[in-house]
Amino acid sequence: MKHIDIEITAESGLELLTNDEIARLSEHSKGGEHELFKKCVLAVLNSTQITDEISFHNEQLKHFDVEVLQLNKGVKLKIKNAPTTALVDGFMIQGLKEQVFSVLRDIVFLKQELESNSRIDFNSSNGCTNAIFHILRNAKALRPGCDPNMVVCWGGHAIPEFEYQYTKEVGYRLGLRGFDIITGCGIGAMKGPMKGALIGHSKQRINNGRYIGITEPGIIAAESPNPIVNELIIMPDIEKRLEAFVRLGHSFVVFPGGVGTAEEILYILGILLHPENKNTPFPLIFTGPKESASYFEHIDRFIGDTLGQEAQSKYQIIIDDPVAVARTIQKGIAEVREYRKRMHDAYHFNWQLEILWDFQEEFVPTHENMSALDLSSDQPLHLLAANLRKAFSGIVSGNVKEKGIEEVRKHGPYQITGDSHIMDQLDALLEAFVTQKRMKLNAENYVPCYQVSKPAKEKKA
């Protein structure tokens, strides 16, 4: 791959800063956050490369650098050895340029806020929600006065072509109805709905469509933002990312995926199973083409056997019918609008939803933390869902995140232990993901980063 040095000037609101603010941005970008900043910028510039191998990015990172330059008229970035695939005739593609400055805004600017702004507090439940609100507001993602129309689409990056085309068709049907799209910003089931919605918006002459991509530093290199994303938001970690989806979105569509999608499903089910959220309207649809029906059969069986019928009642499964999906979402969002209007809740941020600290605190997937997870039936369902979510989060980390991959390389596979019937169901679901090649893009050479086992006393029995 060819590389080139280039300078670009500010986007994403950073063109309207005082000289003092620019000086502080420049100073912070040289500190401990500089390596993280570089990795995220490189991930954005590599968005045309279809890979989830960290080694691909790390090899480029050896020769890559970004410097923040202070100018009276704003901020400029000097990029050394940028991949030429991010350029056209010597100029950076506009969408990628905007995404690069979104990285600067969220990685470096947030660090400044954490050091100087008491409103940013990640050490308590209320503080965490308020901090997420502050980050989304700073990114100009919150737009008061607009009717609910944000559809969150979850699904895997390592999916076959026929599933990708289906996600695109669903996105098209949503776009024709004027809905905007939020995804995890990567390829596969994250790119398809945005591309489809873009076509739908174009046919309806909607020229201000929103395609919001929410990611986090640990996963951005493995799932680089796709070029359609016109609002990139980088949250501090996976838990803050998941809460941002839930607070910002008005309805949810889940396409086939792997462990990351299972993590998202368990996160949202855990929240909806909390008694205080029992009567909150929350459109949640699982959908895929007819060839993928078995995927949702496995998911539905796993949920039923671990969390029960109450959890199964929180979602609908619609197979091979994009129009039905769009119409069901349309009806569900109308109910969300009436509910929030009745409860005097904001349309642009879901304050009413109760989210416990177990869903907000960052889970660091060390071997010790993974083996210590409480995966027993002797706890409230929403807490079991929270712990199952952490197990899947650890597997995601071991599959595609740099720290997780290094952890597994040093200490071997993660050990996951719990009640016999839960472990049986977990093992069966993970095996199905492996068989269906949903763990990584390079599925042929996949080596599991985990081992599922039962407690010793159960083995003897």
TrEMBL record:
Gene3D superfamilies: 3.40.50.450, MoCo carrier protein-like (3.30.1850.10). Residues 333-452 form the Pyrimidine/purine nucleotide 5'-monophosphate nucleosidase C-terminal domain. It catalyses: AMP + H2O = D-ribose 5-phosphate + adenine. Signal peptide: none annotated. Residues 7-113 form the Pyrimidine/purine nucleotide 5'-monophosphate nucleosidase N-terminal domain. Its EC number is 3.2.2.4. It comes from the Bacteria. This is AMP nucleosidase. It comes from Kangiella taiwanensis. The lineage of its organism: Bacteria, Pseudomonadati, Pseudomonadota, Gammaproteobacteria, Kangiellales.
